[in-house]
Amino acid sequence: MKYTLDQIRDLAQATAETRPDEIDCDEWLARVAAYIEAQGAGAPLDPDMAAVEQHVRVCPDCRAELEALMRATEEG
Amino acid sequence: MITRGLRRALAGRGVSDTDLDDFVQESLIRIHQKLDTFRGDSKFTTWAIAISIRVALTHLRKRRWGDVSLEALSRGGGLTELQTDDSATAQFEQDQERSRVLRIMQRVIQNDLTERQRVVLLAELGGMPKESLAEELGLTSNALYKAAHDARKALKKRLTDEGIGENEVRSAFEGASNPSEASTR
């Protein structure tokens, strides 16, 4: 399989954002509802919430899910 | 509540009413199965919609991928190294720093990763859904994530050891995109 520039850029960027202690996709799912409500309320981010943000920088699937959840929970 | 949330979440993705009904039914089962993971730190509805979005997008990812197996993806040495397509090769030749990052990543993937880490990293990068990959490899989602995470940590360590920090990596790939996409922006 040969990779495009976009794919290699995504890998390089995810590598740059990698941290030794990351949460996985299941843990992210358990935390994301609280994260999005805290965001909506303008509350400061605690370390649990910061881990949610870090995860979407390395996981395109969860990033897409976060965007969908934001659309689903928008007012109006 | 789930139907309304999913309809908004999936707007613009061309999801039919039949699909939506199927996603809702499966979501209700999944929510029931996961009830003990609800921590009470958000509204129940927000949590339930997050679960239903995971269900729906997993289906859509698998549908988009089709039935391409890991074996088909691996054929001809496809998951042993980070090869660039012709267009990417030409782009890399024009940027020295970007090429250096690529060469280091290629070396790490070929020489330093375990076979599992290499296969998971390259198959996910190629677009294979995590759920399909986990099924084929017989791994839990947690084990799959760990393999990809360990691979990224190895890549980052080698880049750092070679004097390329995360800011340098970001900067090397700033503005990088496939030519056809760049021309439409």
Q: Could you give the count of β-strands of chain B?
A: 1
Could you give a short account of the major beta sheet of chain B? none
Low-confidence stretches of chain A: none
**Beta-strand content estimate of chain A:** under 5%
Give the arrangement of secondary structure elements.
The complex is a heterodimer of chains A (76) and B (185).
Chain A: E1 2-3, H1 5-17, H2 25-40, H3 47-58, H4 60-73
Chain B: H1 2-9, H2 17-33, H3 44-65, H4 70-74, E1 83-84, H5 86-93, H6 96-111, H7 115-125, H8 130-137, H9 141-161, H10 166-172, H11 179-182
Helix pairs in contact in B: 1-2, 1-3, 2-3, 6-9, 7-9
Description:
The complex is a heterodimer of chains A (76) and B (185). With 76 residues, chain A is an all-alpha fold. Chain A has 4 helices and 1 strand. In chain A, 45% of the residues are buried. Chain B is an all-alpha fold and 185 residues long. Chain B contains 11 helices and 1 strand. Chains A and B meet through strand 1, helix 1, helix 2 and helix 4 of A and helix 1, helix 3, strand 1, helix 5 and helix 6 of B.
How would you describe this structure in keywords?
heterodimer; A: 76 residues; mainly alpha; 72% helix; globular; B: 185 residues
Gist?
The complex is a heterodimer of chains A (76) and B (185). In chain A, 72% of the residues lie in helices and 3% in strands.
